[in-house]
Amino acid sequence: MDTATCPFFLMKHRLFLSLGLTLLTSIVFLQACAPQPTPTPFRPPTSPPPTQLLPTTTPIPAIFTSVPTSTVTATATEEPCANDLAFLDDITVEDGTTFTPGAPIDKQWLVQNSGSCNWDSTYRLKWVGGYPLGVTEEQMLYPARAGMQATLRILFTAPSEPGSYESAWQAVDPNGNFFGDSFFIRIVVAP
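Request: output the structure for the sequence above.
Response:
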């Protein structure tokens, strides 16, 4: 077919070509004007993924958990510990301090557990002489390991009558045996 002899073919071909260009131009124009989607930024993971799965364990039935035991008889090779207490210093209320009648007295002594036994809640302080100065005659002994220092504290009350007063105390082991240095408080009560 000769294109020169067929003007209708050329016209038809030009029409399709023109429509194709118009359509292509419209598509490009519409894509250029259309809102573009916002790209999702890359975010690295915050913690590394697990690299190894740990195996799970199956509990052993109770019939397999018992272990045969043997009876061991202990023989005493260690000697019993020794109790001792060394007075080091008066922390509060120096000897001869004056108080008014009925005043509260916070007395503290610095001592050392100079024995080889650890003091626990079964150890006590006992009044051994003078005046008890308003407290019970048995007080707790501060727990302390052997070789350690401890602060002993008793909250006394000054007597109501003027005069000089002394109260002496000593440590007692769980069996009621006195041990170590005795320590005391000496005060003056004045109106």
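The first strand starts at residue 86 and ends at 90.
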